[in-house]
Amino acid sequence: MNSPSSSSPTALRTTGQQLRRRSWAEPWKIKMVEPIKLTTAEQRTAAMRAAGYNTFLLRSEDVYIDLLTDSGTSAMSDWQWAGLMLGDEAYAGSKNYYHLEEAVSRHYGYKHLIPTHQGRGAEHILSQIMIRPGDTVPGNMYFTTTRFHQEHAGATFVDVVIDEGHDPASPHPFKGNVDLAKLERVLTTAKHVPYACLAATVNMAGGQPVSMANAHAVHELCARHSVPVMMDATRAVENAWFIKCREPGYAEKTCAEILREFCSYTDGCTMSGKKDALVNIGGWLSLNDDALAEKARNLVVVFEGLHTYGGMAGRDMEAMARGIEESVQDDHMRARVGQVEYLGELLLAAGVPIVAPIGGHAIYLDARRFYPDMPQDNFPAQTLASELYLDAGVRAMERGIVSAGRDAKTGQNHHPKLELVRLTIPRRVYTQAHMDVVAESVEAVFQQTKKPRGLRMVYEPEYLRFFQARFEPI
Predict the structure, then answer these.
(1) CA angle in degrees (0–180, nearest 5) for 75-270-66
(2) Which among 115, 273, 331, 370 counts the fewest CB atoms within 10 Å?
(3) For a pLDDT cut of 90, what percent of the chain falls above it?
(4) Regarding the domain delimited by 78-327, which CATH topology (the fold level of the hierarchy) does it fall under?
(5) pLDDT value at position 408?
(6) Which residues carry out catalysis?
(7) Does domain 21-70+330-473 have CATH number 3.90.1150.10?
(8) Mean pLDDT across the stretch 26-46?
């Protein structure tokens, strides 16, 4: 396995007059396996039809390599599995809650912890305690569930990401950065801004990071306007790794040190522990403000569970506390991002159009460049995700016009600049051989001489349509 990039754990080895990178390997070995099977083309066609050409509606047993999401799909370590046996399932005051509280405090630095069943539970609680109808929430590009909860509480979301974030070909190393001029316009013109939303990394931009300098500047600007900064910390550890690799002055710092500093420029966070924290379920809301934390604890018992479990079993909280400890280790992050880079560089070498620079948790295929003649209303990214499954049983996720949804006021489709398909790599699950298979499948679809005409939507649910919408080929 060759080193994927400059962020990989490699040194140069001298052989005669030649220099070459040393190979590297994951900092773990496989102890248990789960069988998967490759279906036939006929079986995949039947499964895709039954799923209404929506990869979310496929049965997992019909999927060969599942890159739908990294949410709750990572492999836990033996230390985490051992922690499951130490679950304190007391209804109130579980010792595992205090283990989780201590881990979050040590590595993220926030004062208060309110556990939730997963990240969107935290988004809901935060929106309910901070947003009032007519508010405006600025953020560095929307995320589906985050924007829904903000709008459902009565706010209007305003995108303040830098312009490079909407350009899949831009080489900017921190395409998740907030445009400070855009943010200041919102802060000075909006009737009321309850908080600024800072996502790290930015999922919809291709897993792109935010620089430390930008996070610091955002916090200073918002402080001048007495507006708190709330972070979507779902992949903040990956963001810290990119700061270590790309931002001057941080190469010698550990991922854990960088994460703690980054969080210090925010006033709270929502967290899906199903990503960075390496567990199958769980999340949390963290806050520094005592009064807000009290409101959150009062509300969490209505929607999630008691304030010392928030919808999680004790064993889940213990696994998450241990997962946090593992997630901030440099060796883990080096291998995690390295595998994503490995797949990305295979695709770049084959001439496949992807979002660059390569992000942290996924490779994003540029569906517009796959199908340059397809109108966006024919759902290019949804079409591409379907074609990948039909080719080799690889399940991916649409991140384009379907995910963007409709304007809450006008009912018209949002037409995002980015029309992407996300190949999301679960942590510690697949080998490089699996990545080779994925790369070959993507290349085969890209080189198809007979291009599909797209899809039409035949069923649209009321909320978050990308989860359950159904389509048919045009």
Answers:
(1) 30
(2) 331
(3) 92
(4) Aspartate Aminotransferase; domain 2 (3.40.640)
(5) 79
(6) 91, 143-144, 232, 275, 399, 466
(7) yes
(8) 95
